[in-house]
Amino acid sequence: MPFLELSLIVRIEQQPGAEEALDDLGALSITLQDADAETADEQAIFEPGVGELPLWPTITLNALFDEHADRRGLSAALGELLPWLEPDQLRFNDVADQDWERVWMDQFKPMPFGKRLWIYPWNIEPPADDDLVVVRLDPGLAFGSGTHPTTALCLQWLDGLDLAGKTITDYGCGSGILAIAALKLGAASAIGVDNDPQALIASADNAERNDVADRLALFLPEDVVAEEADAHGCASAAGAGCAGAADVFIANILAGPLGELAPTFAAAAKPGAPFAISGILAGQQDELLQRYTEWFDELRVETREDWVRISGRRRG
What we know:
Blueprint: E1 3-11, H1 15-24, E2 29-34, E3 58-66, H2 71-81, E4 90-95, H3 100-107, E5 111-113, E6 117-121, E7 133-137, H4 149-159, E8 167-171, H5 177-184, E9 189-193, H6 197-209, E10 216-219, E11 248-252, H7 255-260, H8 262-267, E12 274-281, H9 285-292, E13 296-304, E14 307-314
Parallel strand pairs: 6-7, 8-9, 8-11, 9-10, 11-12
Antiparallel strand pairs: 1-3, 1-4, 2-3, 5-6, 12-14, 13-14
Helix pairs in contact: 4-5
């Protein structure tokens, strides 16, 4: 169906109020983009966590409404809800009906990561080759197809590990791409954690598609208890499970949460466990390196475009 798109350019401090106003007016969806990016390819697309601000100083909020929504009424209502709003901050655009699944399929092609690992869209049949490790993917409503530099950095790191028989925790699992790739690369079991219930649905669907659903457990953060990890495992809350003491730990989220959650991640990794964190913009790594030195050794930095991956090993 066609839609009416309302685009609103705001400063970072105006974003929470503007997003709340659009939601109150019945927006069907709201997406965030860097208003200063010159091209769509330069727009780093991330979904902020609950209560977090996006990365950019100037933001474009794109809100979709029913095609018959009253433009004048929306403009007037926004003017009342947002007294600081200027006419040049607001524009409308008609969005034609499209086969959105076909648009995505046309853009998503098979991609290699490392020596063995390939990510394939679910509608393309991979070649019969026992030397290839193939993950069939439909990101659905969640972030993570391998096209973003942070995901690529994490996939390459996983491809370089010996995962045979290991357990892995993937924090911020999104589409499930990292946990599923680890399982296809030989890991015995995986736990995926995400604060978005839709991400857990997408991860579960992709796990089924790759025949690893019986080895992937999925949880919201509040359902995970990360106690002091030791060789004997960990405690669980109300039977919900826990992050446990993983043989391998990976988190591809944002720099802010990565800093805040460092003690949790340390508790969720066995002594000596390899770990990697990404979702870090170039320039943000120094503070995280200092933070993680308390619990992790052998820290190293890899970059791809303007994004950074930090990897190392749990001390102990």
